Amino acid sequence: MQQVSWEKLQAKGNPLISPAYKSNGHVFTSGNVGSRPDGTFPSDVAEQTKLAIQKLEKVLHASDSSLSQVLKVLLFIADPKDAATVNSVYKDYFPHMPSRSCVVVGFPNKQVKVELECVASYNQREYKL
């Protein structure tokens, strides 16, 4: 088991969680929300979705993986009325249609409209002596 650190992402992170863990050919990510680099949230759910997926992509790259290697997505949305908009953005990033669950939740921060986490495969490096 290997932790992916915030330092590897060159990001200020949450001190309570790791961005991801790698184990047995899989990477397990924490949730990624659609905030801007300054910590603010766009009011537009499509923009939040793009930002959240782009953050997820950075975590995957730091984990020797990519969006195309995602096997399962857990998607949280604040408002079921936003599902169509979220899906229209989502499909552009996940054309291979990984398995997915979508849950409507009440986020503690009311500015948050979407959050994604995933399980993906990663490129295991073989070392030869």
From TrEMBL:
One of its GO terms (molecular function) is deaminase activity. It comes from the Eukaryota. One of its GO terms (cellular component) is mitochondrion. SUPFAM superfamilies: YjgF-like. Belongs to the RutC family. This is Uncharacterized protein.
